[in-house]
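Structure ticket #2291
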Amino acid sequence: SAPGPGPQRIPFAGLPDAYVVTVPNSIQSIAATDDGEVWATTKGGLLVRSSGVGHELVAVLEETVSGDEVIVPPPVILKSGYVVAASAILSSKQCEDYGHIRWFNTKDGKVEKRDLIEAPAFPFSVTSDGLFIGTVVEYKWDKSVGRTECYKGQPQSFQLRAYNTGGVVWARNLDRPAGPPTLAADEKRAWYSDGNRTLVCVDLNNSGKAAWTLELGPVGKVKLSNPARDNENRLYMNGATFLAAVDGDKGTLEWEVETPSHDALVGEPIIDAGGRVVVSGAEVGSNLGYRKYAIYAYNREGALAYSWLHSNEQIFTVEKAPLGLTAATDGTLIALTPEGQLFLISEQGELLNQFEGMQLIWPVLLSDGHVVVSVGKEQLVWSLMLTHGLADSGWPRQRGSNRLDGKAL
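Resolution: structure written out below.
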């Protein structure tokens, strides 16, 4: 369809040097190519593309969206020049869910491939040769009831599946949903959390068979985060009460440290420009719940480098505590709260600046220092907050990089 209004250079909520682009629907996720082209998914199944700072909205791709189809996970951008988007088709008549994996050429937005899979698409990782790896959840529906009742169905099975354009390549049965895998730089292996306390390494050259497993954290109810990977294949992951470092090649524990007393780690760790592991958390403010958002930075030996706290007006549960974290080349950390506050924090743990009114969409940091955020649900904003791009640390943000492909170099 025709692009929306062109960008407007306007002040917005105190954001410096802001360009605003309006899109047709509420934004759900943002990704970007290495040269700064921005792609976003919206509510209702649209995939929109903008050519960069100060340029027009290039395309709104909706020709492949029909009926009740909704793009579910964020788009994944391949270095080969394709954007991969997964979607679910929710059938109100049959109470069945199907999904599409679609490839878009980044030059003209043309749909290259459209493949039907058996179940809704969840966040996935993609190798450079087009192997999609992620968890699939299958449900057993009662087809005698209407669409609303369908969503009360209980999951029947979980699988970690790998797809290519020809269909399923391999599948592993799971006891519970697994996080999207973290891919090795050579793409021969991948690591994922099994949704409990086990880290699993699979061999991508051997039908996804487990190379090794490692249990982390205290015995009991533990939910590991997705692993972050540095440039030497060391993995970092956390539970609520600990942070661990693992040799990703050997599958051996290097160290495990407990959180500060009564505090909790949540979300997923990232690695900053100095090689420190940064993870968000919450500090207990009373026996009723948490009062402060927290950020903890640990060095490579597991020692606490700094902690940063932000008081919240209301008590919140630990499930609502994760902050969106992104690390810049100059050591600055970008943190987004569930309330839409955006903080710039120095590598010493000091607050540099803060902005209000953001949507809870993980921000993208471009190489020229522009931070792309979502505001007003239907607006993308480019703001020149920094002078540097993403840290070259191996895992400077969730899913590794702006491409969201699960493999950062």
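Closing remark: The chain is about 0% helix and 50% strand.
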